[in-house]
Amino acid sequence: MHSIREAHAMKPSAPRIALAALALVIPSLLISCSKTSPETTTTDTAPTPTPDIYPDLLAQIKQLPIENDPSTALRLRHQPVPTFKDSTGEVIGMKSMTMEFPPADGLSLAGLNINDKVRFTFEIVWDDSIPSWAVTKIEKIDPATKIDFTAP
Questions:
Q1: Is the domain of 75 the same as that of 27?
Q2: 82 SS3 class
Q3: Within-domain flag for 44
Q4: How far apart are CA 50 and CA 123, in angstroms?
Q5: Per residue in 1-51, pLDDT tens?
Q6: DSSP state letter for 48
Q7: Which residue in 93, 74, 83, 77 sits closest to 133, CA to CA?
Q8: Considering the domain boundaries, does residue 147 fall inside one?
Q9: Whole domain around residue 11: which residue ranges?
Q10: Which residues contact 94 (CB under 8 A, 6 or more apart)?
Q11: Rounded distance between C-alpha atoms, residue 60 and residue 75, angstroms
Q12: 29 and 56 fall within a common domain
């Protein structure tokens, strides 16, 4: 049997209970505060914008890039693009013209030659009002194919 003094020493007091509870609660609070929930997760990167895709356009190759020669590029004289959208998403169309089209990573231009007629797809992404575009698909078509370079 314990003496009253021993029993009192073994009996948890309110301050001891509070300290023990804090000792258990504080670490779990710190751990949970350091984790971010899906609702509160923030990132430093902006979401990737969805590209506008312009498929099955007809063009004639005017220049092909030469490896290690930055003065050369894939230049296509393309037909008008009546569905072309500006940075606000408004359809404004694009007239026929000759312009540079960077090939997308991994796109092969093998077998293509200057003056070949091609069917191609290009994608454009607007970063604010600055566009970046690339050809994502290109294939040679019948040289007898007529391409209408006049405005629609």
A1: no
A2: coil
A3: no
A4: 10
A5: 444 444 445 455 555 544 444 455 444 444 444 455 555 555 567 677 899
A6: P
A7: 74
A8: no
A9: 4-34
A10: 80, 81, 84
A11: 9
A12: no
